[in-house]
Structure formats: structure tokens, C-alpha cells
Amino acid sequence: MSEGNPKVVVVMPAYNAAKTLHMTYAELPHDMVDLVILVDDGSSDETVKLARELGLEIFCHNANYGYGANQKTCYREALKAGADIVVMVHPDYQYDPKLLPEMVRPIKEGRADVVLGSRLLGGHALQQGMPWWKYISNRFLTACENLVFGLHLAEYHTGYRAYRREVLEAVNLEMNSDRFIFDQEIIVQFVELGYRIVEIPVPTRYFPLASSAGFLASVRYGLSILWLLARYCLHRAGLLRQRQFQSLQRRYNSVPG
After folding, report:
1. Residue 7 contacts by C-beta under 8 Å, 6 or more apart in sequence?
2. C-alpha of 184 from chain center
3. How far apart are CA 230 and CA 237, in angstroms?
4. Are 246 and 173 in contact (CB under 8 A)?
5. Which of 143, 169, 177, 253 is the most buried (most CB within 10 A)?
6. What gap in Å lies between CA 71 and CA 63, rounded to an integer?
7. CA angle at residue 90 from 87 to 92, to 5 degrees?
8. Cα distance between residue 82 and residue 7, in whole Å
9. Domain-embedded: residue 250
10. What is the mean pLDDT of the chain?
11. What is the pLDDT of residues 15-67, one digit of tens each?
């Protein structure tokens, strides 16, 4: 990471986000952001048109390849742009863009490699509108992940994340899924390599324009997480080693302050 003033790049994985993109972008603390990259995953609305009007760096998929595929393009382009810290901000306004300084602070201070914005850390997710079945499933899956990873995080299932450049360079992004399970696969990769994960509390936002998976999609997502954890346990036990969880390069030896 660059000394003194690291380059902060915000990436926005977008799909039909025209109705919320402007207010998300407007609330970013632009004095702390060097570049905003939007990757459009085959939207059928005016997401790309609005992004051009806002002057964003835009990359477009020619079809809807999926949330994981979108993130792969986001991180690939952010690294090409010279990012020292990459922050994923969903353009659906579900996560508060104004909290970006808190998201990057642990990385800048040398206390973290990965920062997760947790909706459950403050303990008010239900009062803030999270559906009860999402809350229960989130708690259950998080408990399973904590057990497997040996960690004590409040939530793994957040789309508000910040990464040191080095962690994105070290993990095998291309072997991860193009679907929603990508978010958990990359966490497994970070855990396997011993990177430091820190959480900060973020408010929960649920409203009609915010994207949210339905019940059946959430069930499929939950089952895929349990299968991922089973695969990782086999990998860690040496019974079924998987290249997906191994580092692409030798892990850096020192963490600059």
C-alpha cells in the first residue's frame, strides 16, 4: 500500500440501479475517494446512461453474468487503476455511503486487511427493517462460519466491504462463482491465508428500491454456503485439497502502518 496517502477506489457492481445510483453517488465522501468505477451487468434500465452523466468510470457486461462475475470485473479494473484500498459500495443505496471513512480507517491504520460493514453488530437489524427470516438465517449461517473459521464476527453476509490491494492480488478470484456465493468464497480464501478481518457497524436499510433476494433464492444461497463450508473443512483436513482456497502468490510478510 502506498505510504502516506493510499489511493481509494470505490467499485459499484450495478444491475438496474438507475433509480438509486444518483443518491448513492451523491453521498460518497468524494474528498476521500480517488476514483469510482461502476460495472454494469447487463442492465435493462438507464443505469449506464446515468453513470455517464455522473462521470463515473464505466465497464459494461454484454449480458447479465451474475453478481460474482460483476465483482470480478470490479476488482480487476480497480487493481489496474492502481487502487491501494478497494471499497465495494452497492449502488442500490442499501448501505450508507457516508460511512466510507470508517470502512477504510482500519486498513489505513494497519489494523485490518479486510473490513466488513456489519448490519448485525449494533443489534438493531430487526428494528431497522430486516425481515425476521433473513435475520434468523443470517445468524445461523454466521454461527456456522464462526465455528468453522474460528472467528467471532457478527455477520459475514454484507455487501459493504473494503479490501487492501494485497488481499485481492493474493486470492484466486477467477475460480470463485459468478453468483452470490462469491461473497462467501472470497471470505474463505481470506481466512485460509490468515488475513485480518475487522467489522464496523452499519445501519440496515430495507425499502422497495433496494435489491434483496427473495425467500427461495435465500434458501438456495444458505445451502450453497453450507456446502462451501463442508468443502473448506475437507480442504483444511487435507482430504480434498482445492486450488480455489490457495494463494496465488507468496503472502506479504509485513504490514505497513
Report:
1. 34, 35, 81, 82, 83, 84, 85
2. 9
3. 11
4. no
5. 177
6. 14
7. 160
8. 7
9. no
10. 91
11. 999 999 999 999 999 999 999 999 999 999 999 999 999 999 999 999 999 99
- Number of domains into which the chain is organized: 1
Task: Find out whether 78 and 56 touch, Cβ atoms under 8 Å.
Answer: no
The C-alpha atoms of residue 66 and residue 61 are separated, in whole angstroms, by: 10
Q: Which domain holds residue 133?
A: 8-245
Within-domain flag for 212: yes
Asked if residue 66 belongs to a domain, the reply is yes
Q: Are 225 and 149 within 8 A, CB to CB?
A: no
Which residues, in sequence order, are bridge partners of residue 57? 37
Cell 470502512, located at residue: 103
In this predicted model, what pLDDT tens digit does every residue of 127-163 receive, in sequence order?
A: 777 888 888 999 999 999 999 999 999 999 999 999 9
Which backbone phi and psi does 75 adopt, to 5 degrees?
-70, -40
φ, ψ dihedrals at 55, nearest 5°: 80, 25
Nearest to 66 by CA among 253, 199, 224: 224
Please give the grid coordinates belonging to residue 128.
431497522
d(CA 230, CA 236): 10
- Which residues contact residue 234 at a Cβ distance below 8 angstroms, ignoring those fewer than 6 apart? 240
The candidate with the shortest Cα–Cα distance to 192, out of 154, 238, 151, 247, is: 247
Neighbours of 12 (CB within 10 A): 28
Q: Three-state DSSP class for 38?
A: strand
Report the CATH number that the domain containing residue 70 is assigned in CATH: 3.90.550.10
Model pLDDT for residues 167-188, shown as the tens digit of each residue: 999 999 999 999 999 999 999 9
| Inside any domain, residue 220 | yes
Q: How far is the C-alpha of 14 from the C-alpha of 253, rounded, in Å? A: 35
